[in-house]
Amino acid sequence: MARDTTLLQGTLDLLILKTLTLEKLHGLGIARRVEQITRGAFEVKPGSLFPALHRMEEAGWVSSVWGQSENGRKARFYTLTPAGRRQLKAETGEWGRVSLAMALALKA
Amino acid sequence: MAMASRAASWFRNLFRRSRVERELDDELRSVRDLLVAEKIKAGMDPAGAARAAALELGALEQLKEEVRDVRAGAWLQGLGRDLRYAARALKKRPAFTAIASLTLALGIGCTASIASLVYALFQAGLPFPGADRLVHLYQVQPGQDEYTQVSYVDYRYYREHARSFVSLAAHYTAPLHFVNGNESAAIMGSVASPNYFETLGLQPARGRFFNQAEAELPGRDPVVVLGYQFWQAHFGGSPDVLGRVIRLNGAPFTIVGIAPPGLVGVAFGKNQVSLWIPAGMFRVGYKYCDGLAPGCNLVNLIGRLAPGVGVGQAQSELTTLARQLETANPETNKGRGVLVLPARGGDPNRRSDNAQILTLLGGAVSLVLLIICANLAGLLLARNLARAREIALRLSLGASRARVVRELLAESLLLALVGGALGIGVAALCNRLILGFYQFSYSGFAMFFELGLDSTVLGVTLAVTLATVFAFGLVPALRASRTDLLTTMKDEGQSPGAGRSRLRDALVVTQFALSLVLVVDASLLIRSLRHITQGERFDATRVVTVRLRPTMVAYDSARARAFQVEVHRRLEATPGIIAASPARTPAIWVSITAKVWLPGDPPADPDRATRIAFNRVGPRFFEILGVHPTAGREFDARDGAGAPPVVIVNQAMAERLWPGGNAIGQRVVVDSVSSEVVGVVPDLQYRSAGESAVPFVYQSYWQGDPRDSWSTESVTHILVAGNPRAMLPEIRRVIASVDPDVPVSEDRALVDRLLLEYQPVRFAGTLLVWFGALAMFLSAFGLFGVLAFRVAERTREIGVRMALGAGPGQVARMVLRRGVVLAVTGVAIGVVGALASVRLLRSLLYGVPLGDPLAFAAASGLLLVIALAASYLPARRATRLDPMLALRHD
Fold it and tell me: Which ipTM value was assigned to this complex?
């Protein structure tokens, strides 16, 4: 079951970018994929997902198109832009450094 | 790329808002559908699935709001919405809206107007093509911060040698007596170098300008170019004036051209020029020295910088040239340098005076603006309090505090924008008032002065407008958004925090304090003005002055003298005229000096003798001014040409030469003439608060050497029985009956002359009186608002008191006491501020001490009376409350 974990600032953006590396997804798809790849550790609520998606679209990291969902419904799909890929790379590196530092700090 | 996409989405959000909104709706609907489908697939029934999906999505409106907020340009959209909302709220309260935006308009308008004056006096360029490349050149001497003129000879040297200029021109502004047929007028003309118009980049409207050949040969080519306005006014704009002959100072001149409209000189803030004559005709415009000879320093220079040359570069070249001239002509040019200044703003000699008065007015207008903001802040606090429930409700329904603050600020912004727009109209009116003061120079000639609301000034106005939004709107908005939800809803707005009313009290105190500063300053200036026009030691109210210059029309000295004698005889014989007396310069002013020493104590070098302020006056001069000699007598018929030389001294002079002793009968040498002192008069001239009495010596007018043209010219002082202004035509007629060709100029009542001379005091005084009145009105209004609100707030308490036996008198006293306490506190603080502020007035105060107790007492008294008046209505309302109704009031 999804636990009530507060996402760190910036973590949601990173997770969204990550889910979009393989294929384009609609909003709900992104939420489910995040839950899936984090094994239910993070539950993404629409109240934070949609503002984040629109913010990232404004920033030019993702772009959106209207398409058909898996069950034939109209849905808005998001894809990663080249700027988004660069952003993902940069944030992944940053995350690696932070988590390594945290791990070291907690072990000490 | 990021920039471009951002810009694109800005555009999309702003101009295709409805589509964006629709897409967001579509997206959220599709997400809900997907959620429902997901739940059904997981085995839920359709109704349960729909409920679960709605729950998971949460509050849709809030979600949409958050998405909108992250959209670029969202704040702009939000602003638009807030402004519309604010407009609706303001429309519901037209009285509040009208008062708020009108007072703001007054404040912003006055500020804009002062800003445009600052711009005009310090920054505005000349109204010619490419005027930003024009520079003025002045002669300067080390140790003297005066910008003076150059000799024509030096000018030609600079013109021939300087490489920094495309063109360098010289000009001298000359008072001229213009005669055309039987029409005559005293005007200002310009004696100009041949390249004057070319330097300014102008083309003639008709005919031609001067040509190189005719322009500089002494006396050969009497030609004239008329100013466009002058042509319109005196020749009806008739095209066939070219070739016609007019007379200037008695000499014939042929009209060869008309200058383009708008050219009234190149010296901003100085006399307007009506026509131009070539430098070769210098003698007509000036005859005390040869304008074309070395050492006769008369001309001002204006140059057009060569492409790529900066002011600094021109300056260093001119410094080198000036040094060359100094080496070549040490007797005329020793220590003289040249200063190159961009042709911007007014006379550099008046820069510090102007800066001083603008500091004063700028300060005053800032105070007014602060008072207005404090006033509005008070109004908004009260108004927001009335809306406390509405705001609390909105906060409880999920509006963020920032959102509420933004909405309230939008209201302030809208008020300020309306106020600012109206303020531009106010500024235009205020500028007309200011122009009135700068229209005439102190000698009464029209000035070259323009005052406009150009883009710089409008920018300042906008900045001021936006600043006021925060000044008056921010604190009330923050206060309102901090509304305690529970208490507000529960108490139904009955118990506003004590802090809130303390803040409103503080605002009223501030208004009274600032008003006191303005009213004290205004009353000091009014007292100064009274001293100037009806001085304690003399009376200018029934005196007319006229300047007569018979030598201008090539009279010889005997004829000029005879003319003067006859004019004064006829004037004194005219009904309505009590006395007429010639003088060398107008009364009061220190404009010329004489070398003075005691007979037993001649200076080693006469050139280094003490210089004392000096005038030559005729019989009855002091009688005309209502001045009585403190000892001896004034000049009379005995003191004519050939009689023993006599002088009159003022008390400061007597005290200096014969301290404690009797001056009458003593001898003193004035300009090498040993004379007997026959009278002592009071110190006449005005003094600003910073100066001390100036010693003065008077010689008898008719004892002056008639060969000196100054001794046959006069500023004649005439004492009349009635209104001096009404006598002017009659006086002109009497003078013309002696000889219509003699130039008569500067004919006006002495009072008007004084007002022109003391223009800055009058100007500052007038504006400060308006500012002070506005400040007082606003403060009274602010106090009234606070007290009225207080009475309304405490209706129940007052009811209880009355029910317990308090009489109407006690209730009224309670309200009045509050009003008086606030006003007195403000006035007390204001007195301290005013004491600091009057230092700015130093140079404008005449015969009034800086800390004049009368001004302070009058201002404080006035404000307290105003405070009582403002407290009266709320107090009366409190006494009229019906205790029973008051107790039931909620």
Answer: 0.85
Give the phi and the psi of residue B393 in degrees, each rounded to 5.
-60, -45
**What is the distance between the alpha carbons of residues B544 and B728, in angstroms, rounded to a whole number?**
8
pTM, rounded to two decimals: 0.74
Q: What is the DSSP letter of B807?
A: -
The tokens describing B652, both together, are: 């400061």
Rounded Cα–Cα distance for residues B508 and B676 (Å): 66
The torsion angles phi and psi of B510, rounded to 5 degrees, stand at -60, -45
pLDDT of A6 over the 90 cut: no
B30–A55 CB contact, under 8 Å: no
Reported as a single tens digit per residue, the pLDDT across B348-389 is: 888 888 888 899 999 999 999 999 999 999 888 888 877 787
How far is B66 from chain A, CA to nearest CA, in Å?
6
Backbone φ, ψ for residue B581 (5° rounding): -140, 130
| Closest-CA residue of chain B to A47 | B63
Residue B28: CA count within 13 A, CB half-sphere: 24
Percentage, residues of chain B above pLDDT 90: 40
Residues whose CB falls within 8 Å of the CB of residue B255, separated by 6 or more in sequence, listed in order: B207, B223, B224, B225, B226, B241, B242, B243, B244, B245, B246
At B277, list the tokens. 């004559």
Say yes or no for a CB contact (<8 Å) between B30 and A75: yes
Cα-flanking dihedrals φ and ψ of residue B408, to 5°? -65, -40
**pLDDT single digits (tens) B191-220:** 999 999 999 999 999 999 998 877 788 888
At B558 the three-state DSSP class reads helix
DSSP, collapsed to helix, strand or coil, labels residue A77 as: strand
Q: Does A4 touch chain B (CB under 8 A)?
A: no
**B341-363 exposure pattern, b = at least 16 Cβ within 10 A, e = fewer:** ebbbbbebebeeebebbbebbbb
Strands B673-681 and B714-720: unpaired
Which residue has 């309102």 as its token pair?
B480
Query: What is the rounded CA–CA span in Å between residue B419 and residue B58?
Result: 43
- CB-CB contact of B471 with B376 (8 Å): no
Q: Verify whether the Cβ–Cβ distance A60 to B1 is below 8 Å.
A: yes
- Residue A5: is its pLDDT beyond 50? no
Range 6-65 of A in CB contact (< 8 A) with B: 26-28, 45-47, 50-51, 54-55, 57-60
Amino acid at B535: G
CB B681 within 8 A of CB B627: yes
Secondary structure element (H or E) that encloses residue B783, with its range: helix B759-793
- B610-631 per-position pLDDT tens digit: 888 889 999 999 999 999 999 9
Average pLDDT, chain B: 86
